Amino acid sequence: MTGSPHIGEEHRDEGSASAASAPLFTSSEARQLRRLAIALALSGSFFVFELVGAIVADSVVLQAEAIHLFTDVLALTGSLLAMRLAVRRPTPRFTYGLRRVEPIAALVSAGFVLLTTFGIIVEGLSALRERRPPNANLMLVVASAALIVNGTSAWLLHDALTQSKPAGQHRHAPVAPGFGPDDGGQPAEMPHAGHSLNLRGAWLHAAGDALGALAALAAALVVRFSGSTVADPIGAFAVAAILIVGVLRLLRDAGLVFLEAAPAHLPVPAIRDLVLAYPGVTAVHELHVWALGAGHDAITVHVGTRETDLSLGRAIAQSLRKKLGVEYVTVQVEPTGHACSSGELEGGR
Predict the structure, then answer these.
(1) Which domain holds residue 229?
(2) Which residue has the higher pLDDT, 33 or 42?
(3) Count of the separate structural domains present in the chain
């Protein structure tokens, strides 16, 4: 970059160079997509049976569960579409691709769950006032079938979600302490984390259905052997409480992505210390860490140096990818005395 005080500007050339030949889905992503499609097929095919059974049994918890299942079919369809859109290649207008589609899908899923939860509470209160006795025997049959189907869907999605997490890495684990051109470290394994937020939204729906079926089964047993009608709406309230907790956590995590907060597993002070420890680096500023979507992390940083090696930025970026598993890294190298005035030396935003 002749004639400029900034040298060694680094961008994500590894990903960009191979983007044209990269497959839309990795083998792990294809496996996640298949699990999501199977869960959608199970939920969609079982919905009619559960709704008819709930109406005939006159069970509020089963009716609430059936309504919830219908919203889940819509939400799972959205999640499936979001996964396909999220892996589309970048375009001149969407230069990062469509990574943010998945947190959008997670927010939509959360909205569906909140609406359904409100409906469950309303129906439960109505059942408490009217004390309608449900058909306990039919409740047992329908709830048992629902538990099997919804439990299978939840297991499929949880297994896919587990596969999306980096092996051996805890969400709040600190970044690796060693850093340098010859650190010998292995690349951090984060290739499957990109769909975790979207998968969590889908799993939340499936888990809510399984819990609803379990609550319906417990209520059916109580009604069958004690004759108490209160167990039916109480079971619905228990499901609503569990769903609200899960939705709040999902909304928090999706909101953090849109607010461009630094991911918990990439603390900014620790990353600043890593870059400062790199041989030849004398200052760090304009450090930004954020996520385009869950698992698709990005880092940009300006570094001061007394070196004139044009490859320093590339070396630092490659080390960050290797140690942290970050997908997008940009390093701007600036000779000492030419740092940007907007940044703060030895610090980060």
Answers:
(1) 23-258
(2) 42
(3) 2
